[in-house]
Amino acid sequence: MEARAIIKYARISPRKVNIVLDLIRNQDAEKAMAILKFTPKAACEYLEKLLKSAMANAENKNMDTKNLYVAECFVCPGPTLKRIRPKDHGRAHRILKRTSHMTIVLKEREN
């Protein structure tokens, strides 16, 4: 049995999120929560909230919360917001504000 949680349209680049996801992949849920709490990255805020949600979903499915681990975690790029930045001599440069769709899947370890 598995429990999953998804955040869509988060205003952070998928490249930044992927760095943090590599830290928590295949870790116990409690250990992953501690890693996210003490890692100074912007993506940790989103992922901590997402992991809490996945753990709550697991509890509602009557899974043993002590044996949970991060089985899958991935990020997909969402739509990109295109903005214009004025530059010298009347030129304009494009600013790409990227968004992310993040997913965490928790499973129970078999003893």
Tell me about the largest β-sheet. 3 strands, antiparallel
State the helix count: 3
Radius of gyration: 17 Å
The CATH homologous superfamily: Ribosomal protein L22/L17
Would you give the CATH topology?
Answer: Ribosomal Protein L22, Chain A
Distance between the termini: 15 Å
Q: What is the structural class?
A: alpha+beta
Estimated share of beta-strand residues: 35-45%
Q: What is the strand arrangement across the widest sheet?
A: 1-5-2
Number of strands: 5
CATH architectural label: Alpha-Beta Complex
* Overall morphology: elongated
Could you name the CATH class? Alpha Beta
How would you state the average pLDDT, rounded? 95
Fraction of residues in helices?
25-40%
What is the helix/strand order?
EHHHEEEE
**Low confidence ranges:** none
> How many domains is the backbone divided into?
1
Structural key phrases:
Ribosomal Protein L22, Chain A; single chain; three-stranded antiparallel β-sheet; 5 strands; alpha+beta; 3 helices; 35% helix; 111 residues; two-stranded antiparallel sheet
Quick overview of this protein structure:
With 111 residues, the protein is an alpha+beta fold. It has one domain (2-108): Ribosomal protein L22/L17 (Ribosomal Protein L22, Chain A), CATH 3.90.470.10. The protein has helices at 14-24, 29-38, 43-60, and strands at 2-10, 68-77, 81-86, 92-97, 100-108.
Secondary structure: elements and pairs:
Layout: E1 2-10, H1 14-24, H2 29-38, H3 43-60, E2 68-77, E3 81-86, E4 92-97, E5 100-108
Helix pairs in contact: 2-3
